[in-house]
Amino acid sequence: MAQFGYLEKFGIVFLIALLYYVVKSVVNVLYTYIIGPLVNKVDFKSQGRWALVTGSTDGIGKAYARELASRGCDIVLVSRSYDKLMETAAEIEKDFKVETRIVLADFSDADIYEMISKEVADLEIGTLVNNVGVSYKYPEYFLEIADWEKNINTMIKANVVSVTRMTRIVMPGMVERGKGVVINIGSGSSIIPSPLLTVYASTKAYVEKFSEGLEMEYSKRGIIVQCVLPGFVCSNMSGIRRSTLIAPTAKAFVKSAISLVGTTSNTTGYFPHTLFFYVVNSIHSFAPRFSVWLVTRSMENTRRKALKKYKKE
Ligand SMILES: NC(=O)c1ccc[n+]([C@@H]2O[C@H](COP(=O)([O-])OP(=O)(O)OC[C@H]3O[C@@H](n4cnc5c(N)ncnc54)[C@H](OP(=O)(O)O)[C@@H]3O)[C@@H](O)[C@H]2O)c1
Fold first, then answer.
1. Which residues are catalytic?
2. Exposed/middle/buried for 16, CB within 10 Å: 0-12, 13-18, 19+?
3. Which of 232, 276, 300, 305 has the fewest C-beta atoms lying within 10 Å of its C-beta?
4. Nearest to 164 by CA among 203, 115, 106, 222
């Protein structure tokens, strides 16, 4: 190194650090998405005969219910529409030859938990998917949210209270048996700038923190806890109908996310979403004002279009 000047030495150290960062990131991605899922395969059925999924009659929840049924679990479907529950249960029984049980519950009501607890008291639930969640009808400024009190209460009850209370109902059995899987569906909106989705993103930040603590407390008791933070997925909530690389079908999304159970406890669940959030957060750390301007502009556009549509209707 003696023949190099200070600037050249600095350049060499910088290149070594950059190379280390790139290699570490590539190894991390390879382990998370390829090697991990091959070596850490979780046999869900061996965790307990039943899997319970909240918000399971559509979108991501229904895809989890079907995926777990395809892996041999009997399924408890908890959702708010009786007809959709019956239809989903019949579909799953026919397609996967497993048993199902339905529990009719509206998670915007905080008084449902004693009833749910009784309905599932006799079941050995090895997998719990806390999927139910509600968002804004369209992006909106905090003070302008329509029907403010009702919508905010619903969001907090469905997104925060449900995850906490369902875990309290199901996890004691898991701890007793020394095994089980808890999957909590958060949202990427809690890890990127999310103006005009402030309350929704905040409820999902709770889901992430709750999962982190739960994992620290109960992994040593044999419980696997995973928090999934998706980007856009085709569903009623996102309003996206046609799948693309960045907005996969719920089925494709769940196939990917579920393969990461046992490998990673905090994940977007889907590699293109990881890349997307990485790019957004990199822009945000280089030019925070620009990124906030860009996201706000895009949210305001969506809001404008939605308001126009609602006015027409
Ligand atoms: N889709 C995305 O782009 C996206 C992105 C990030 C995170 N997420 C999260 O992923 C989860 C699932 O979202 P999704 O897009 O699959 O939603 P979705 O297609 O709207 O499906 C939601 C499911 O939950 C049920 N549900 C809604 N409100 C309920 C309530 N109050 N009580 C009981 N059940 C209720 C629905 O039943 P009904 O059919 O009867 O309404 C349906 O089965 C949510 O936690 C969401 O925050 C979604």
1. 200
2. exposed
3. 305
4. 203
Atom in ligand 1 nearest the alpha carbon of residue 230:
6
State yes or no: pLDDT of 38 exceeds 90.
Answer: yes
Beta strand pairing call for 180-185 and 223-228? parallel
Predicted TM-score (pTM) of this structure: 0.95
What counts of helices (H) and strands (E) characterise the chain? 12, 7
Q: What would the DSSP string read from start to end of 129-145? A: EE------SS---GGG-
Q: Which two tokens stand for residue 178?
A: 């020394």
CA of 236 to the centre of ligand 1 (A): 8
Candidates 78, 79, 256: which one to mutate for ligand 1, based on the most atoms within 8 Å of Cβ?
Answer: 79
Pocket of ligand 1 (CB under 6 A): 55-61, 79-81, 84, 106-108, 131-135, 158, 185, 187-188, 230, 232-233, 235-238, 250
Place of tokens 């529990």: 103
Q: Would you say 184 and 225 are in contact if contact means Cβ atoms under 8 Å apart?
A: yes
Per the document, the length of the chain is 313
Residue labelled with tokens 């989890």? 64
> Is residue 168 within 8 Å of residue 130, measured between CB atoms?
no
Q: What is the pLDDT of residues 61-96, one digit of tens each?
A: 999 999 999 999 999 999 999 999 999 999 999 999
- Check residue 210 and give its pLDDT: 98
